[in-house]
Write a structure and sequence with these properties.
The protein has 163 residues and is an alpha+beta fold. It has two domains: 61 residues; 87 residues, Glutaredoxin (3-Layer(aba) Sandwich), CATH 3.40.30.10. 48% of the residues lie in helices and 11% in strands.
């Protein structure tokens, strides 16, 4: 965890005389370099800002942009915007939760997948949409979820195979 601690200290050094107005930018920067906000990071940020950790945690949990678990190797975003909702994204979300055995905001036990519900991915014409590591899957139906996840698992095995 030394690297993560060093990364956080690098972020905090960019705010040498911080005020309350720096809390959200610090949280954003910390998550950018660390991938998520650990308990230790929340405590250290609170110390740097001379705020109670509960205040920092309260702000971080208020905004859905912050993650408290490391994202999976493959980060799934399911769009719940109007077009996707009308075209059945709720069923897709249910299928993802069932297949992965996780809730939004969580990472699968094997660390392979994380799941996030987003308001809109800006691809309404392709609805319903899921995005995995930036790759769009359009016109998804609940019965497609198992096949899509299997493709990503296969990709992981191919990437991990020795040359």
């Amino acid at each position: 965890m030394i690297g993560a601690d060093e990364d956080l200290e690098t972020v905090l050094s960019q705010y040498p005389d911080p005020g309350r107005e720096d809390l959200i930018p610090i949280l954003q920067d910390a998550q950018e370099v660390m991938g998520h906000l650990s308990h230790e990071a929340i405590v250290r940020i609170a110390q740097h800002l001379a705020l109670p950790a509960s205040k920092v945690y309260g702000v971080a949990t208020f905004y859905n942009q912050f993650r408290f678990q490391a994202p999976g190797r493959f980060h799934i975003q399911i769009c719940r915007g109007t077009a996707c909702h009308v075209k059945g994204s709720q069923g897709i979300l249910a299928a993802l939760k069932r297949e992965l055995r996780i809730e939004p905001g969580q990472t699968s036990r094997d660390g392979m997948f994380s799941l996030e519900v987003v308001a809109c991915v800006g691809a309404c014409g392709l609805a319903p949409v899921i995005v995995i590591n930036g790759r769009f899957h359009a016109g998804v139906r609940p019965e497609h979820v198992g096949r899509i996840l299997a493709e990503w698992r296969r990709k992981a095995k191919e990437d991990d195979a020795p040359d």
